[in-house]
Amino acid sequence: MTAQMRPQMAVCPGCVAAPSEAVEQAPTEARLALSLPTIHCQACISAVERALNAYPGIHSARVNLTLKRALIEAEPDLRAADLIPVLEGLGYEAHELDLTALAATHNDKAGRDLLMRLAVAGFASMNVMLLSISVWSGASDATRDMFHWISAAITFPAIIFSAQPFFKNAWSALKVGRLNMDVPIVLALVLALVTSLWETSLSGEHAYFDAALTLTFFLLAGRYLDYRTRAVARSAAQELAALEVPRATRLLDGQEYEVPVADLAIGDLILVRPGGRMPMDGEVTEGHSELDRSLLTGETLPVFAAPGTAVSAGEVNLTGPLTIRATAVGEETSLHRMADLVAIAESGRSRYTSLADSAAKLYAPGVHILSALAFVGWYLYTFDVRTALNIAAAVLIITCPCALGLAVPAVTTAASGRLFKKGMLIKHSTALERLAGVDTVVFDKTGTLTAGTPQLVSLDEMARSDLEIALALATPSSHPLSVALVRAAREAGISPADVTDLREVPGYGTEGLYQGRRVRLGRAAWVGAAQGSQTTAWLDTGEGSKPRGFRFTDALRPGAAEAVRALQAAGKEVLLISGDTTGAVEALANRLGIEKWVAEALPEDKAARIQMLADQGKKVLMVGDGLNDTAALAAAHVSISPASALDAARVASDIVLLGQDLEPIAEACGVAGQAIRRIRENFRLATLYNVIAVPLAVAGLATPLIAALAMSSSSITVSLNALRLKS
Hints:
Oligomer: single chain
């Protein structure tokens, strides 16, 4: 990781900007980042921070639970690879992240910008409204004109600053020859300002400065609500790139050299130590070990690796050192190809048209035509441009889509708050709209419907002496089955036998000496057993008897069965698509009552099947958690990932399930349906408001006071209707 210097304090701002001739100093601190996909509570944060801050060379360590990430400041020579075993010893999975790749993935400037514009519009509208009250109360002649000129002095700079988002969006739409909701907003603001300035210069009685500012304030409030309903969307493709290994150990003439991954070339020999991730695609040339492919393929069982085994970037080497000859590097690796799949899928989802955009296509031209007809009609009736322009401006202001601008964000904010209490975070602005239309739900298996960690199920079938020997053999191993066996045995109060000369044989298992005989715990072929369809670790006690099998299963995630039943009861088709083996997928599908399932699916297969369902007219909800799910999550009509998922999967999804329980997924579909009904009710309320208000405006009865009251009442009505969702 590139080391960075701490900024030095300057006496004045000018000193910071002035060029310096100081000699560049060597970096005194390194910044490291670790992804922690399995942390889930404050206790996890405390445990990780305590362990990291106690490690020699670390200056400070802070954990972000939302991002599931640890940021560390340490001595320049400290590496993230040194810290990963420390956290794994505490039971937390950890992966190194490239801070350079993450630098551009998160920026909340847009939120601060909207909030600042909202504050300016609110402050200005309150001041101008106070001046307007004096005018409405009877101020006339020079006093009224003075109040109008002061209002103009406040309004023009406030509108120019606060309404910039509307001006920019309207101009972007007009440049390509289309209309959006911001076009009538901008036209109303401009016409209100021009008309008000003209009336003020002619000592007219009415000016729309207060209405223009109130309109800007309410619309910015809706825009900010819309922004706050979702997390700042970072690119899933960038997250995938950040998960790549930033450095690798290259072997050259028998010597080890640590080099950036970008410097690797096809044919290079790379050393990957136990616990390390593959920095490129390649083939094993030396060594034996086991590979954890669960993040990439969904396979729960580690895969045996020996000379000739093909490996892919992102896979984790578990037990023994491996020498890999690179066959694909950089953008040609499987991990990069997966990132490309995600980027393509994300661009496809962006073509979804929201309800608000659909309403804008009908509303914007209607408002313009109505205002133009009012101008023409009154001009032909009075032949007075001033009167006709005033009424046209009143029509635009009173019909301006303030209620429509709040119709969607008010509902999504209320629905998001209700779902957040149930443990679900809505990230995308149109996620609820898309979720309401779902008719097909696709689940991943490992880490989604299941907990993703093996669980010993044959403990009660084993003799205590066998359990004691197995515990002694499993304790020094970091293999997932060994870890599960140790956890189960200790919970049962088992103590380890006195086994000596313990030695882990990479790719096979662990062996030692017990009462003078060789005992082994590991793969079936290594101990002379026949491997069945169920995940099993075999124990050979060296007594000439048959090896004993410790059977494991992948435990169900809480609420998995209830979620599947509730979704099926709601009339939705449920499918299971996994990269795990056929036997494991079939067993889980039968256990949960899922009739349609697919096993051994590659990441591109998952995305292709989601697309095939979409081509059949299905609206697919994808629920997944691994790197192998990111393309499918992005390709689905709407997607959900658990909080335990890796960053890349969470970013690719529209909704994050914060807790361990899957049961709220079915409720989220119901809330989404209610939200869409409320949004449509709000559109009808906004239409009813226009039906009442438009005749007043066209008849010339819409004074600035009436316009301001009408806009406020419509906005409040829409917001109150949205709040019904919270109950």
